[in-house]
Amino acid sequence: MRKEATPDFFGRTREELAELLRSDFSQEAPFRAAQIYEWLYARRARTFAEMTNLPRALQRALEERFAIPSLITQHVSESADGTKKFLFGLEDGRSIETVLIPSEMRGERMPRRTLCVSTQVGCPLDCKFCATASLKLKRNLTTAEILLQIFEVERVTGEAVTNLVFMGMGEPMLNYDNLVRALRIITDPKTAMLGARRVTVSTSGLPDGIRNFANEGLNVKLALSLHATTNDLRTRLMPINKRYPLEEVLSAMEEYYKITGRPVTYEYIVFDGLNDTPADAARLAKIARRVPSRVNIIPFHPIDFTHPTGFAAELRPAPKAAFDRFIAQLRKAGVTALVRTSSGKDIEAACGQLALAELQEKPVVLDVKI
After folding, report:
1. Tens-place pLDDT, residues 264-295
2. Enclosing domain of residue 259
3. 163 and 295 together in one domain
4. Through-space distance between the first and last CA atoms of the chain, rounded to whole angstroms
């Protein structure tokens, strides 16, 4: 009978593994922690027996106390545009989704493979345009479960992820400690995973989290899920705005820039008749000019498959003419405005569409390996 994985072993940082060996394996040389760290994250060892430069006695001691976890790939959906949506099973029987997005640029010397990872099972924020809101919050993901999304996608596809965006299921800042720990491991040169400049964290706007994040020294990119330029509309779209209104959130973003020196990104879904007017564009341009930034303009992807009600059921994509006029006005005002494509829309993997649709349509029996 296999033992359950100890949740706080895989997912430790280099410093945390060193402390573990000092306290629990004090007879071992300090450099053993660095070897274990490399085996776990750079060489992707799945058993302690694979760690061939460790003494056999240490391998056995680790095997007796710990196990290295894994995710189970329950289903992979592939879009006509090459996007892949992964349904992963977790140890407790719950599931999450992760999306691999191929490069949108043709002729790139090194094509990008961007992975959109999740940080929570479900989400508590109830954003009206987001399918994940229909799941509510079940729990935070562990550091291990965040990292294993990358490992499992690379194992299944046989190709390396080149960029990482924390824009999947959940609000990253509500899983702050595990988010930061995962980022320290991902961006550590010793793990050979990803450089900080290839990682973006998106938040709905938790000011304390943003300010704390600015002082972590991680040097990753930060994006704010904005979507409205007035408090009234933003609160209707994103109820979290009632607790943390625009002025407070934007002030925190400005502090982030002042502390890190990193330009910020604002994400803006354009809805028909709600936030697509010239006045909206003018206010958005004013916001974007407060600190160096860019604006990612996102088409609205309907979430009818979650059977939304009330205000959520009334949301519609802006017509192409209004969408294009909005972008043109921003650019004319000197704003760097980029359009995010609807990659994966045909498999419900586009921005805002993650809701475990495959699991809901076709229940999967979990066989979770530890």
Report:
1. 999 999 999 999 999 999 999 999 999 999 99
2. 72-361
3. yes
4. 11
Kindly state whether residues 92 and 122 are assigned to the same domain.
Answer: yes
Whole-number Cα distances in Å, 300 to 37, 41, 103, 116, 353? 42, 37, 20, 18, 10
User: Domain tally for the chain?
Assistant: 2
Q: Name the active-site residue from 91, 97, 145, 171.
A: 97
Of the candidates 67, 74, 149, which has an alpha carbon nearest to the alpha carbon of residue 114? 149
Long-range contacts of 107-110 (CB under 8 A, 24+ apart): 110/162
Q: Give per-residue pLDDT as tens, 26-61.
A: 999 999 999 999 999 999 999 999 999 999 999 999
Please indicate whether residue 152 is annotated as part of the active site: no
Tokens representing 353 are 């569409």
Distance CA 244, CA 105 (A): 37
Q: Which helix (H) or strand (E) holds 332?
A: helix 320-332
Active-site residue (options: 116, 171, 351, 358): 351
- Grouped pLDDT means (10 residues each) for the chain, 370 residues: 54 95 93 97 95 96 92 91 92 93 67 93 93 87 97 96 95 97 97 95 97 96 98 98 98 97 97 97 97 95 85 94 97 95 59 59 35
Domain for residue 60, yes or no? yes
- Annotated catalytic residue 127: no
pTM for the model stands at 0.91
Of 233, 177, 239, the C-alpha closest to 205 is: 239
Q: Give the separation between CA 182 and CA 253, rounded to whole angstroms.
A: 22
